[in-house]
Amino acid sequence: MAITARYFDGETAASQQGELHRYGRLLTFRTAGRELSFHLDDAELREPIGSGTWSIELSNGASLHFEDAEFGEVIADEIGHDRTMSILEGSWRWAVIAIVVVVVGTWAVLPYGVPEAARHIAFAMPPNLDVTLSEESVDVLDNIYFDESQLEPEQIARVQALFDEVVTIDPEYQNYKLLFRNSKIFGPNAFAVPGGIVIMTDGMVHIAESDDELMAVLAHEVGHLSERHGLRTILQNSSSAVLIAGLTGDLTNITALSATVPTFLMQAKYSRDFEREADDFAFDYLESQGIETDVLSALLLRIESEFGDNGELPDATWMSTHPRSEDRLRDSGDSD
Q: pLDDT > 70: what percent of the chain?
């Protein structure tokens, strides 16, 4: 069996046209004044893509190119070449199916794959990067939203003591810090900064009527820290960072996300699943201390009552980024 083929020596762009013969597993290429022989054991068959040509790549870097499909299929059968991809590429039906599979697969992976990748990266972050992220995030927040706390030293010491007690529920509590800030923008608020810091505003300390209410808020925020909710949320909304970190294993660039923390705190809300996890964390702690779990909802209702009725409720108050107070009352009642 002989066909027309072109021979490339692999060293220059020039080619020679001649006849390609097959004798079992032996190939012979002949021109007017030259004959070259090759064994199929030392060759790799490459099928055409679209309207391209077949090629046989030789172990010495040379290659043979031809258009005869029948000859190519014979060679493929002789060497046991898998033709699955070429069959798929040559069929528009399979191409359409492949596109549908990719689209559906992407649609299915995004809601689950990205959150899972974000979770993996958040928990894989080394402690030193955690510290860097939290400190840089606080610096950004201080420059934009916060003023120095106006609380009395006795008030700060009292709430700090409560925090020191609450964080012992988390094995990693030694890395957590509590900061106090004054802010007209955030109003009565407390939130977990990704990386291990809880910030409580003066307004939250003032509006709380008991240590139990403050402990409930602190336990809720420690729950967010414990489950890495803030970092996971930011990573889920920054899919490129998730993919880069996941593919390269380089977590050092994640600290650049500190610049996104203010936007996250002002605009983004934790998912309801994350809020329930933080609530469950707080309820477990309160129950372990013999404290009624509805103190959390009572505080939210007070914030809503004092600020919401007259339209003075700041956009970024604690209740604005959490489930409605009525839902909180129902959930806390279920935990009893």
A: 68
Sheet of strand 54-58, all strands in order from the earlier edge strand to the far edge: 34-39, 26-31, 15-23, 2-8, 63-66, 54-58, 43-46
Residue spans per domain, the chain? 2-89, 109-334
Q: What is the mean pLDDT of residues 102-120?
A: 64
User: What CATH number is given for 2-89 in this structure?
Assistant: 2.30.29.30
Average pLDDT over residues 108-123: 68
Backbone φ/ψ region at 195: left (φ over 0), alpha (ψ -120 to 50), beta: left
| Predicted confidence band of residue 267 (pLDDT cuts 50, 70, 90) | low
Beta pairing class for 54-58 and 43-46: antiparallel
Question: Beta strand 177-182 with 197-201: parallel, antiparallel or unpaired?
Answer: parallel
pLDDT for residue 250: 56
d(CA 65, CA 218): 72
Indicate the residue type of 224. Answer: H
- pLDDT value, residue 6: 92
Q: Return d(Cα 303, Cα 324) in angstroms, integer.
A: 12
To which residue do tokens 């500190």 refer?
A: 258
How far apart, in Å, are the Cα atoms of 230 and each of 12, 15, 22, 211, 258?
Answer: 58, 62, 66, 25, 11
Q: How far apart are CA 123 and CA 129, in angstroms?
A: 11
- 109's CB contacts (< 8 A; 6+ apart) are none
C-alpha of 297 from chain center: 32
